Amino acid sequence: MSDYDVIVVGCGNAALCAALSAHENGAKTIVLERAPEDERGGNSYFTAGGFRFAHEGLEDVAEDILTDLSDAERDQIILPPHSREFFMDQMREVTRYQCDEDLAQLLVDRSRMTMGWLRSHSIRFVPMFGRQSYLVDGKHHFYGGVNIEAVGGGAGLVEAEIARAEKLGVEIRYGTAAVGLLQDKNRTVTGVTVRTKGGYDEIYGKTVILACGGFESNPEWRVRYLGVGWDLARVRGTRHNMGEGIKMALDIGAQPYGNWSSCHACEWDISAPPYGDRWVLDNFQKHSYPLGIMVNTDCERFVDEGADYRNLTYAKYGREIMAQPNRTAIQIFDQQTIHRLRDEYRIKEVTKAKADTIEGLAEQLDLDPAKLVKTVEEYNAACQGGEYNPSVLDGVTTKGLKVEKTNWALPINQGPYEAYVCTTGVTFTFGGLRINTSGEVQDMTDQSIPGLYAAGELVGGLFYENYPGGTGLMSGSVFGKLAGESAASYAGASA
Ligand SMILES: Cc1cc2nc3c(=O)[nH]c(=O)nc-3n(C[C@H](O)[C@H](O)[C@H](O)COP(=O)(O)OP(=O)(O)OC[C@H]3O[C@@H](n4cnc5c(N)ncnc54)[C@H](O)[C@@H]3O)c2cc1C
Predict the structure, then answer these.
(1) CATH assignment of 266-425, given 3.40.190.10, 3.20.20.70, 3.90.700.10, 3.40.50.2300?
(2) Assessment of whether the complete model's pTM goes beyond 0.85
(3) Residues with Cβ within 8 Å of residue 35, at least 6 apart in sequence
(4) Beta carbon of 470 within 6 Å of any ligand 1 atom
(5) Nearest CA to ligand 1 atom 50
């Protein structure tokens, strides 16, 4: 009765990893993509393609991941190791010890080998020179734990995964949204109901892997779970992640899990459209705030811009911006750091002001000049000095402010000044389904729903209130690969 061994719902990184894995384990596999072909790839397409994984430094990574690195490039790179213990500690600290230990440990433990596995499927990687390293004494010092990206970023990653899947003979159907799960009398999942332009249909499979994203694209669910006002936030990526995968699993008794009232959200250009733009991609983000200060429209600072590497603060600062008047934040930099701003500050679609004085900046931005000058002067007076180094937590701090800046606190006093205006961009939601360490979806009594697996954004339990940058793609790959293996085995496939 089954048309397929494995039906994969979704066509982002998690789904494509699941499909590659299921296929290499001998399963006849189909991928269902809600989006039309020219919008395929989900949020994964919009990413920088940056992965966080455990490794022992450059020599280790160069072996089977950064295989294209030249000797000249090697000589220029300082890549700190990222041990499993450190990665796990970061998962715990960033989520304030709320992450599911078993799932987080699995993510960490499988991260290194999954990167090698991706490379074996023709995905190529390069160091993130532009975004995650600072040139210090002639060498590129990488920082923050997310140091390797797929060639071509997220778009390159997805296109390479699709090309690989197609080459291996995996079928992909576009414009095909799964809207319900089919079950037999024993609860075993037997397929999906799909909606296409032509109406409804049923596709039968021995197993289903849900890898179709969270509910960040759905304004009604955002208000329902994230709170009042979240319908007004911009969405950084796809418009297709409406929570349908989560809903269809809950409808058959799956267990809701994780941090439903929180999400990954960051500083995002105020002029960005409601959903992601496939040309600008992630360049609406403005991640260089540790190099300057951030104020609201009352000209008050409201976060410690230097609390940690931006990789560990950006995903929660979007929520802080939501709480500010007009959901707006203004990042201000002076000549000491403007040359270090990330590439995303230099695109033409940027909301920017430039002036010789802070008053001039305020006038251009419709802010109260006296208030902005006061905030900057108070901040400057509180800067303690020290050995400034943007590639380490340098401890160059302010003292005596209501909101301190605890690293990289250079005074803002060398014009011309630049300001960038941001609002909140939602990246993905944290609440989702509970899986076990085989990727099987759990019911309310912690029993596996036979034949049902999940991977990617819609897995709950990994991220709470915050998120270590680069973990989303890694989680999609680790749990996608795992779900593919488990589903193929359950379906009785053999390679
Ligand atoms: C701008 C931006 C930048 C980011 N940068 C990074 C980064 O550099 N590193 C990192 O680790 N993470 C990054 N992230 C987070 C990352 O995108 C996600 O964690 C990851 O891509 C999620 O992968 P996924 O496969 O679970 O979901 P997605 O990639 O969103 O894929 C979901 C898929 O499911 C499809 N779908 C939805 N509903 C249905 C349905 N009912 N039926 C069939 N198909 C359906 C969608 O169309 C899509 O193809 C970024 C996110 C954004 C938006």
Answers:
(1) 3.90.700.10
(2) yes
(3) 11, 41, 42, 174, 175, 238, 240
(4) yes
(5) 47
